[in-house]
Amino acid sequence: MSEEPASPRAAAPPVLELREVHVAYGAIEALKGVDLEVREGEVVTLLGANGAGKTTTLQAISGLLRPRRGEIRFHGERVDGLPPHEVVRLGIGHSPEGRRVFPLMTVLENLRMGAYRFRGGARREDLDRVFTLFPVLAERRTQEAGTLSGGEQQMLAIGRALMTRPVLLLLDEPSMGLAPLIVTQIFTIIREINEQGTTVLLVEQNAAQALKLADRGYVLETGSIVMSDAASALLSSSRIRAAYLGEGAAE
Ligand code: ATP
Predict the structure, then answer these.
(1) What is the DSSP string of the chain?
(2) Which residues in the chain land under pLDDT 50?
(3) CA-nearest residue, atom 25 of ligand 1
(4) Domain 14-244's class?
(5) What is the pLDDT of residue 76?
(6) Would 84 disulfide with which of 63, 116, 139, 237, CB 3.0-4.6 Å?
(7) Which residues line ligand 1 (CB under 6 A)?
């Protein structure tokens, strides 16, 4: 592991800190003491094989799961144990694995659901931001979400999370099940979201794409972080290349 600053952003204050986080499903220990940090303005990627604990990590951050031990801090304040709506209110948006859009609601209704925390409902400027990032959602605003393509549903899930005005955006496998061209498009938009000032924690199995986008990365294996480094260093590491960028890895 390298302690060298990965980029100027590595010197920024931490937005999110996980310390020794343990999460279990009954007797199954899914996270066995995870330490992780995301600094202001960064894109950090969390890589790992199926079942490594990536989704569990994001669910613990967003309050959907309560850690058995350890601490999760957002801007220095403990958030573990808070209910999910409180975590959203503090500025953590979550685009979940498998997208989970409301299929019988229209695109616009899904986006408005994202803004439920605001008393006055969805704000014009937030909708405009989402429609500028994802013009196809503007075109399909009255279409039922269940009839969208997989890529469009992914865009909607990210858009819905952006409607909460997150400081930190958690993205759970946005590339899952999508064609390479759509994946490239979505990663380009994630970069744009980051450049607009949103810090990003990106869970991915598509290590090649994720590491090209990210400032830093962590590798999770069976509930433990086994590597962390600058994304460029991970991209050239022989261990990562063998385990995650082997033959058939999407470029
Ligand atoms: P994937 O990419 O397949 O989603 P992941 O890295 O996100 O994998 P998790 O979904 O976080 O992994 O799962 C971590 C471990 O916890 C796995 O061993 C999984 O079988 C187990 N697990 C996840 N959800 C539950 C649950 N609801 N009940 C019991 N065990 C679970």
Answers:
(1) ---S--SGGGGSPEEEEEEEEEEEETTEEEEEEEEEEEETT-EEEEE--TTSSHHHHHHHHTTSS--SEEEEEETTEE-TTS-HHHHHHHTEEEE-TT----TTSBHHHHHHHHTTTSTT-S-HHHHHHHHHH-HHHHHTTTSBGGGS-HHHHHHHHHHHHHTT--SEEEEE-TTTT--HHHHHHHHHHHHHHHHTT-EEEEEES-HHHHHHH-SEEEEEETTEEEEEEEHHHHHH-HHHHHHHS-TT---
(2) 1-3, 247-251
(3) 25
(4) alpha beta
(5) 94
(6) 63
(7) 25, 28, 30, 48, 50-56, 97, 205
